Amino acid sequence: MFVAEDIQGQKIWAQDCFTQQKGSWHCPSCKGQVRLKRGPLLAAHFAHVSLVDDCQSFSEGETAEHLSGKMLLGRWAKGSELEAYLPELKQRPDVLWGNLAMEFQCSSLAFERFVERTEKYIKQGYAPWWILGEKFHPKQRLSDFQKACCYYEPLSGIKLWLLSERTQTIQLCYNLQWHYQKGHLYERKNFQYERQSLRRILLEKPLASTDSIWGNLEFKKALAQKLLRCAEKILLLQERFYVQAAHILYLPDWCYEPSRYFFFFEEELLYLRWCVLHSHSYNQWFEQIDKILLKWPFPLISRTSILQKIYEESCLLAEIKK
User: Fold this and answer.
1) Cβ neighbours of residue 167 under 8 Å, at least 6 residues apart?
2) Phi/psi at 155 (5° precision)
3) Which of 73, 96, 146, 246 could in theory staple to 142 by disulfide, Cβ–Cβ 3.0 to 4.6 A?
4) Each residue's pLDDT tens digit, 135-149
């Protein structure tokens, strides 16, 4: 942490301290004792003497990347406050800029803790902006934590925000998609420090390009191969079709059409589409699928909104393909 409290409860910056004064500084969140750390590699900062107090504000640890990254964001967001403690939430965003709570995440966070922090922000009128460090820059497949940090808006599709403090750039991964052979695909836009204002970056809504190359027949072949390999996920999905007197490889052709919504459910979207054919309304369809959708790992995206879009898209595809 960059900011601590002295014995009078006044805030003090680590960069303004040059000598260690034992017992003089405390964490603004848990009130536990902190010590000053200075060195040639890390910016001056405070660290807990002991985490016995279980300080939730700084549970991830302060790596060099995290310290430098949140300092960069603080400079980028003119008039923001670093490590502003919010007593009503018992949380301390890395950077607070008006009602925007920036969280620069460089290490894994338990899903339950992520949801708790996100919901607290939203409930109190703050907009959480989760930005991921180098460790979480996406590769071929996204982890559950990366998925949890995704946002959605119609023009750009599914989005993920990244920060590279090394190159001083914010990166927007957008139009995130799932492909049956290639894994996760996306487009990327970079923003260099001091070349674009942070306010302008937040308003960016790049238009998603056309979908990736997708062949319905190739998709079915990939499914057949997974069945032959006895892939557990596909076997369970086929079992669901089987009890409904259907087969995953012999659905109406439109069920295999590409969609950005495969990102949320992967092959399971096939079952959601097939259920549309056996429902007379959205409510009836929702009652049927809600029994199987026990987990929604995207706390920053409205589950209801995405399901409505899937239903509408399925109805449109079924009508077009008649």
Assistant:
1) none
2) -70, -45
3) 146
4) 999 988 899 999 999
